[in-house]
Amino acid sequence: MKFTDGHWLKQPGVSIASPAEVRSYEVHDASVVLYAPPMKIVQRGMTLGGPLFTITLSSPQPGILAVDYTHFLAAKKEPRFPLKNANCPLTVKEEGNLLTVSSGAMSAEIILDNFHITYKYNGRVLTATGSKKEGYAANADRGVGYATTPEGPHMLEQLHLAVGEKIYGMGERFTSLVKNGQSVDIWNRDGGTMTDQSYKNVPFFLSSQDYGVLVDHAGMVSFEVATEVVSRIQLSIPGETLRYCIIGGDSRKEVLRAYTNLTGRPALPPAWSFGLWLTTSFTTDYNEETVTSFVDGMAERNIPLHVFHYDCFWMKEYEWCNFTWDEDMFPDVEGMLNRLKSKGLKICVWINSYIGQKSPLFKEAAAAGYLIKRPDGSPWQWDKWQPGMGIVDFSNPDACKWYQEKLRVLLRQGVDCFKTDFGERIPTDVTYFDGSDPVDMHNFHTYQFNKTVFDLLVEERGEGEACLFARSATAGSQAFPVHWGGDCDSTYVSMAESLRGGLSLTLSGFGFWSHDISGFESTATPDVYKRWTAFGLLSTHSRLHGSGSYRVPWLFDEEAVDVLRYFVNLKCRLMPYLFSTAVETHTTGVPSMRAMLLEFEKDPACLDVETQYMLGSRLLVAPIFREDGVATYYLPKGTWTHLLSGETVEGDGWREETYDYFSLPLFVRENTLLPMGKSETEADYDYADGLELRLYALKDGGTAETTVNDSKGGELFHAKAVRRGGDVTITLTGSAKPSLLLWGIDAVSGLNGATSEKTENGTLLTNLKESVSFSL
Question: Based on the number of CB atoms within 10 Å of its own CB, is 645 exposed (0-12), middle (13-18) or buried (19 or more)?
Answer without folding.
Answer: exposed
